[in-house]
Amino acid sequence: MTGSGKGGGRSDGKKGPSGRSYRGKAGLTRQPKKMRGRKVSSQRWLTRQLNDPFVAEAKSRGFRSRAALKLEQIDDRYKLFRPGMAIVDLGCAPGGWMQVASMRTNLGRGSARLVGIDLLETEIIVDSDIFVGDMMDNNMLARVRDAVGGVADGVLSDMAAATTGHRPTDHLRTTALLEAALDFALEILNRDGFFLAKCFRGGAERCVLDVMQRNFNTVRHVKPAASRQESVESYVLATGFHGDGLTNSAENSAPDDDETGSQSAPDGSGFSPI
């Protein structure tokens, strides 16, 4: 499959539905077979998947999802994983992020631990623990906590609520998952641990980000190249957990953008993109 590199772009200067040009050598975007009877939105999704170079790369490398490449790209830049780490993956199905975490922590070759939980069945990752259940259930989270050894060096969450088509509603529902994942991370993280979670940009997550800024050295928005450009999806990455905000509840306001521990973006938002 040809991406948007030199010599493979569209001659009219327009980009495909994912923000990139997927024109092949013949000058035509590849079309999936058996489109009759499918909704227009399904047709667009299938065409995008068929022509997306990241989908092709993930498949060729044996990853279970293109999301694995997102985590790789984030880790390549921010160096989150180290051998021997204890990692929890909330909403782990189909297991792409667990594949990356297992390789980069040297799971099975030392003290590394990897635990995942999802409502859906997830194919086993050797030497990991995977639970089928609701991460909003305290009993399930207790099992996750026990399996990882009581503490973790990193908490991952690629969870997103099932979409309704109404963007404000979808944003609020996904933000609720982000808040629940953060609550768990604050309970289980080791000092200097990290938290990485899906986060749709909007306004409702501001209070969640404030909590992160009080408890981590650095908080930033990141959007890896494998995340489609037109998507509202981004990730929030909090590193250097110290937990001071858990004991000092009087700090109810967000720190200034130029305060130590909060990275300021060029637009003054307080968060820097990848």
Per-chain topology:
Layout: H1 40-51, H2 53-60, H3 67-78, E1 86-90, H4 96-104, E2 113-118, E3 129-132, H5 138-148, E4 152-157, H6 167-188, E5 189-200, H7 206-215, E6 216-222, E7 233-241, H8 244-247
Parallel strand pairs: 1-2, 1-4, 2-3, 4-5
Antiparallel strand pairs: 5-7, 6-7
Q: Explain this structure to me?
A:
The chain has 274 residues and is α/β, with parallel strands linked by helices. It has 8 helices and 7 strands. The chain has 2 domains: 7-51, no CATH class; 67-247, Rossmann fold. Helix content is 32%, strand content 18%. The protein has a 7-stranded mixed sheet with strand order 3-2-1-4-5-7-6, with helices on both faces. The two termini are 26 Å apart. Residues 1-28 and 249-274 have low confidence and may be disordered.
